[in-house]
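A reminder before we start the practical. When you read a complex entry, don't treat the lines as separate problems. The point of joint prediction is that each chain is placed relative to the others, so the output describes one connected object in space. Small molecules and nucleic acid strands, if listed, are placed in the same frame. In the example below there are two entries. Take a minute to note the order of the lines before looking further.
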Amino acid sequence: MPGVLGPDEVRAVAQAALGLPGADGVEVLLMHEWGGLTRFASSSIHQSTWREDTAVRVRVVKGGRIGVAATNDFAPEGTRGAARNALEMAEVAAPDPFFPGLAPPMPIPERAGFDEATATATPELRAEGVAALVSACARGFEAAGAFETVAMETAVANTEGQFCWTASSQASLTTVVTGGDGGSGFAEVFAAGIGDIDPEAVGRRAAGRARASQKPRDLPPDRYTVVLQPSAVSTPVGFLAWIGFGGRGLIEGRSCLAGKEGLRVAAPAVSVFDDANSPLTLGIPFDFEGVPRQRVDLIRDGVFVGAVYDMRTAKQAGKQSTGHALPAPNPEGPFPLNLFLAPGDATLEDMIASTERGLLVTRFHYSNVVHPVESTLTGMTRDGTFLIEGGEVKQPVKNLRFTQSILEALANTTMVGRDTELASEFFFSASRVPALKVEGFNFTGRSNH
Amino acid sequence: MAMQAVGAAQASGADYADARVVRDDSESLTVRNQEMEGIDRSVSEGVGIRVLVGGYWGFAATARGEEAEIARTAQQAVEIARAAARLPREPVSLTFTEPVTGQWQSPMREDPFDVSLEEKVALLMEATRRMQAVKGLAFAEGSIDLFRRHEWFASSEGSAIEQTIVHSGAGIEATAIAEGEMQRRSFPNSFRGHIAAAGWEHISALGLVEEAGRTATEAVELLSAKECPSEVTVLVLDSGQVELQIHESIGHAIELDRVLGMEEAYAGSSFLTPDDRGKLRYASDLVSVTADATLTGGLGTFGWDDEGVPAQRVPIIVDGVFENFLSSRETAGAIGQTSTGAMRADGWQNLPLIRMTNVSIEPREGTLADLIGDTKDGIYMATNQSWSIDDKRVNFQFGCEIAWRIKDGRLTQMYRNPNYTGTTTEFWRSCDAVGGREDWTLWGTPNCGKGQPGQVARVGHGASPARFRGVQVGVR
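Here is the predicted structure of the whole assembly.
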C-alpha cells in the first residue's frame, strides 16, 4: 500500500525544479493522492475503484513573465523537465504587471487532518459500510451512492525559501434511496476520519426521507416560503464562492458584491465566513502558493465586510493575501474553499412550525447562474420536496424549478438553524451550513417526478 | 505495459481483464486585454486496470510504471472486485466483441503542438487587440486549448489497440460591464470556443481575428438592450445552442447506465426506459439524431472505445421516434442488445463510463436565414450562456448570450439576458424546422462531467439551427 512520503522526500523532489538555471524565481506545488471509492446502485456495488496519483505543478518567473507546466512524474527528472517547460512558456509570455512575487517564508499553523485508518481503508471495509447502509432500506427500496476514502499530501516550495507541507484525509458517504411509489431520499456525511462515519445512520436517514416522499403531488410554481435543509443551503452558499466572494471579481466589477462593501446584502441573522483551519471543515492550512489560510469574515450580521485574496489580487486591491490562491495559472482568481454560514438559534422544527404555507426542500440539483451580477441561479429541487401547511409537513410534491437571486434569498431569510452540516454542492466544495427559512422563494417551473 | 498489466491481473485471479496505458498531453493559453492570463502545459501518464472476478468489477490505477507496481495494482483491482461480492447481484456478463489488433490516429494536417508558442500568443494578442478597440469593452479574452491522448489498450480476450487522438480549439470572449449589468459575447462558441479533433489548421480557419470586432461590438450593445420579454412564442436557436440542447436533453438521457440507475445518486438517471425503444415519440418527425463515433473531426470520434468496441454510427432518434441507447458491453447485454461502443475514460486513472460520442441532429433543409425569414413573429437566441436540467432530464432551462425579436422574417429588436424553459419531449415535439447542411456545425463540448470520482469528457454534437413552437422565454 502507498503511504505518506513525508516532507523530506517531497522537498527533495521540489529541489530538482528550484535549481532551474535561467529563472528569476520558481514555485513548485506538489500533490500526492491515493484512495478508493466504492460506488453502489440498486443496493449492490457496481463500480469500485482505487488509484494513486501525483502532481507536480511548476511556476517559473523570468523578467515578470510567468509560465506554468505540470507533470505527474514525481521523480526529480520529471520535475526538472516540467520546470524547463515552464521556463519555455515564460519566455514567450508578456510580463504580468501585477505579479506580486512568490510567497516569502511564513509560518504555517499545524492542522490535524490526517487519519491513518482512512488512508489505509480497504475495499472490504468500504463494502461493509455499504452493506450496513443498504440494510437500513426497507423492502421495495434501493440505495445508490458512493463511499470514498482518500488521503493526500500537499506541499508548496519556492525559491524565496517558503516550504510548507501537510497531509490530510477525507471519508465521505453519499446516498440516494429510491423505491416504492415514486419519491427519493438523500443523505451524506463527510469526515476526516472513516471512524466518524456511521453508514447505517446515513442509510436510515435517506430511507426515511424516501418513505416520506412517496406519491408526490403536483404543485404549481409560485413564490413560496421555503425551509431549506443544509443540503439545499450549500447551493446558494457554494455559488457565492464563485460569483461573489473572490477578490478578482470584485476588482473587475464582475462580482455580485462589487461596490457593496460595508452595505447590507443579507438579513441580520446571516453571517458567512471562510475558515480552512476550523476543525468543523476539511481544509488544509495553506493555499496553493504557500500562504497560510486565514479566517475571513465575508458577510457579518448581514453586511458584506470582506473578500478573499491571493497575492496577485491583494496587490491590485492594496490588501494582504488571505491565503486563498488556487493552483497556477488561475484565471478565476482567489476562491474560498471552506465556507461557513454561521448557525442561528432555530431548530428545523421551529422553522416548519412557524410556516403557514411553504415548502421543505432537501436539496437542489444541477443549478447554474442565470445572471451573475444579480446573483440569480436556476436549478431543480431533488430527493424530497414537501408541502408545509399550518406549521406541519403535509405531503411530498413533485420537483420544482427555481429562478432566484441568492442575495435576495439571503435578505429574505427570517430564521437560521442552530445545527450545521458539512454539505456538498454539485460543482463546488462542501460548505458547513445550517438550515434556513426564506420568504418568497421564486419557483418558475416543475417537473413530472 | 498494458499486456503486462492484463497478465498480472489474470495471474491474480481475474476472469477478465483489460488495461489502458495512457499519456495525456495538454497545452493551454489564455490572453486577456493583451496580457498573458495563463500559459501552461501538462502531462499525465499511468495505467488503469479493470477486472471481472466472479462477475464483479474491480478497477485500480497507478502512475508508477515499474513491473512490481503494476503487479500490485492488478492485485488491488482483483481484491476490489472480490470485495464487491459482499452485496450479491446478478453477475456482470459482457456482450461479445471481436478481439482486435489495430492502430488509429485522428486526422490532422498540422500538429498544433509543433506550432511555436510565439505564433499562438500572437494570434490571441491580435484578437484581443481588435476587441479592445471597441469602445466600452471591459475585457477581451482569447484562448487556445490543445489535447493529445496516446493510449494503448489490451484485454484478456486478445485485443491490442493503439490510438492517438488530438483535439484543438480556440475562441474569443468579449465582456462589457456597466452599473449592475455584465454582458458577454463569444465566438465561435462560448466556453473557450470551438474544439475539434483536428490540428492547427482548425484554429487557423476559425476567424478569431476577423470576428473580434463584431463580437466586442455586440457585447457592448447588449448593455443597453432591453431585457428579453417573458412570453410564450416561436423560438429559433442557432446551431451552437442546439448543440447544448441536444447534449443535455438527448445525449445524457440516452446513456443506458443512467437508464439502469447506475448514475442515480450523482448526476441522476433518465426519464427513458428500455421499453421506450421503437415506441416513444421523442420529437417531431423532422428530428433525427445519430450517435456517430466515425465522424471526421468530432470530439467523440475514435477507432475503438475503451472496451475495444469499434466506432459505430448508431441511429438514436429516427423521424422523431426513439430507437437506441448509448451503451457498453455490460449494459447492452442487460437489455438484450450489443454495445453501441460508447465507453470512454477520463485519463488512465478512471474506469470507462458510457459517454456521448458525436450525438448530432441530422440536417434537413435551409439556412438560418431561411428559418428566420420563414418566421412571422418570434425570438432568435444565440450562443449558450447557462444550462440546467433535472435529475431525469425532463425539465430544463437554458440561457443564451443574445437574442433578437423576429418580425415578419427579419431580426429587429436586440434583447439581453434571454432564456427559455421547457420539458424534453414536449419541446422536441414542437420542433417545426431544422436547418440544412449549410449551417450544420460539428461542435465540441469539452467539459462534460459524469461519474464518481468525477470525470470530464470531450464529446461532439453536430447541430443545425432549429425552430420550436410555443416555448416559454424570459423566465424571471
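Discuss with your neighbour: The CA atoms of residues 286 and 319 of chain B lie 6 Å apart. What might explain this?
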